[in-house]
Prior knowledge:
Blueprint: E1 6-9, H1 18-29, H2 35-44, H3 46-54, H4 63-74, H5 85-92, H6 104-112, E2 116-121, H7 125-135, E3 141-144, H8 145-148, H9 155-164, E4 172-176, H10 179-187, E5 191-195, E6 217-219, H11 222-228
Parallel strand pairs: 1-2, 1-4, 2-3, 4-5, 5-6
Amino acid sequence: MSQVSILVFDIFGTVVDWHGSIVRELSAAHPQVDADAFARAWREGYQPAMQRVRSGERAWTRIDELHRGILDEILPRFGLDHLDEDQRARLNRVWHRLDPWPDSVPGLTRLKARFTLCSLSNGNIGLLTNMAKRAGLPWDCVLSAEVFRAYKPDPRVYLGAAEVFDLPPAEVMMVAAHQDDLAAARACGLATAYIERPLEFGAAHVKDVSPDPANTRHARDLLDLAEQLGC
């Protein structure tokens, strides 16, 4: 760890509670809808949509547009196909309004005292900036797949983050709540830290957060990671 100076973070699920945020907003606006099922259905379309971009089937497309396409597909399933354009556009921007996990802001603030902190998300730059402004996320730099025109786990994203700071990959640590993200980062030479987020998909769908010994660190949350890293 002595050589690591940059921490780059996955965002959805790791730093912010996408499921809980969508459930709360949808429940308030449309109480008749199964908000838990809606949130999970929206997220289930995320990887297939990005894969169409990765494969070249679709030209580079920002996450905001991919989210909107998935939203339009699932609205009829939940009896919301009557929503007009303004309502759909506002609902789609819920991804800009996701709430941080309770430990995120204090944990990041402690980590920032020793490390440079940077987002490294598939979310687009506008989305990540709006989210950070609203939630008080103290990034030193906002990096996105949009910068590299490639979606994780494409190596261009992880290696690109190191290149931005003119550092070898070993001096960058990927922090995420998803083992596949960390495995891809590790394959590019980055250090890795796993953050347990057992409730990422809601209390009814508790996630396995078992340690993977291949990771450099395993932490309960971002405050625990800060403690482990001497912050």
